[in-house]
Amino acid sequence: MRLAVGLFFACALIVAVSPAPAHSASTGSLSVHKSADPKGINSNVGAVFVVRQLLGLPLASPEELGQMVQDNPALLTSKPGMELGPEIVATTDETGTAKFTGLSEGVYQVTERPQRTDNSYEDVAGPFLVPVKNDVQAEISAKAQPVIADKSVDARSVEVGAVLDYRIRTSLPPCDAQGKLHQFVVLDELDPRLAFRRLKSITVSNLNGSQTLEDGRDFRTILDGNSVEIVMEQSGLDILAKARLGNPETRVEIHLEAEVRSSEAVGDVITNIARFSPDGYCLPNLSPSVSTLAYSDANGRQVTERVVLAAAEQCRGDQPATIQSTPAKVVVVGKNHPIDDNDDDRDGKTQPGSETHGHPDSPSSGVVDDAGNDSKGNGVGEQAKRIAGKIADNLASTGASVIGIVLAAITALVLGFILVRRRDEDDDDDEGDGRV
Description:
single chain, alpha+beta, Immunoglobulin-like, 3 domains, 5-stranded antiparallel sheet, 21% helix, globular, disordered N terminus
């Protein structure tokens, strides 16, 4: 009877670790779609996509991958913290589809390769992760990576004469095909009830760290009335490009001060926005332009007249308009009114990718049986299955592993007899202890 039990477990384990020949040579495929317009009416032909397998990442669902990226933004960078497979390149066809075939099962990082080489606008998709399974055709639509601008202030209410800390944070577009950036202009037109005091700092940050830029070398500041314009010089653009290359989470932060100067502003809500022009975007005019118009009047006399044109954006062709930041609002209060600090902006800098997300508690290591008991798998069969499972997990299910599987089965057979014999000895001991 014991021999039969041992043989039963051994046979069961041989079946459990036998390879599945259909999967040994199976591969998956991936189709990446890209549209030339937000509504998806026209196809984007000629876009170049690159996929690389994340060799240290187990296969996971899209939802799980999304959580992984939130917890670890480095997974979307050129240095994800694990080995990357070779680059596989495909170009979108007339249907706007880039097709990848013969992919090993796993998780792949997908990026679009920029093609522009100058200060022009290019709609480049943001990087993303996608799971690829054997014998499955995965399809996904690549989305544009928006450039964002945000403006915040360190208080929600403030007295006249107080100094406000404003911070303007922007992302950066992908570098061009040569790894360069060509334009970075920010225009902050302060409310008339505010007086610009100084530009405190400009820093660029990514997951690798941060760097402070130097005024006069990396950027220049242009003041005109109550407006301040920040323009990156070539050295500053080089610093930004180096930080941005392979790091989509890169952010630039501009820190400036302004003073509330009008006593008539008490009770008012002061709202400010900034305008941002990265590569390929329209440039904002800092001031209204003044032109001289010469013409002849009804009597034939030459007349000259000054014409003031409202400030407008300098656009060419189909350039996108400047990016407007989110508004920063503050209420001006009297001397006896309590001041409401903006705690969200008090700490200043927020490192990209520093947000943390909690994980649910890990499940019990046991198996819940039909009766609701938390079984730890202490039975002979469970022990044998676990041991054999560990052995089998280390063997590839290919023809080359047949010898290893046979050895694993033999090992499982021996273990089955040992465990059965140990169980019987324990039973004998228990019977002996129970005798009078």
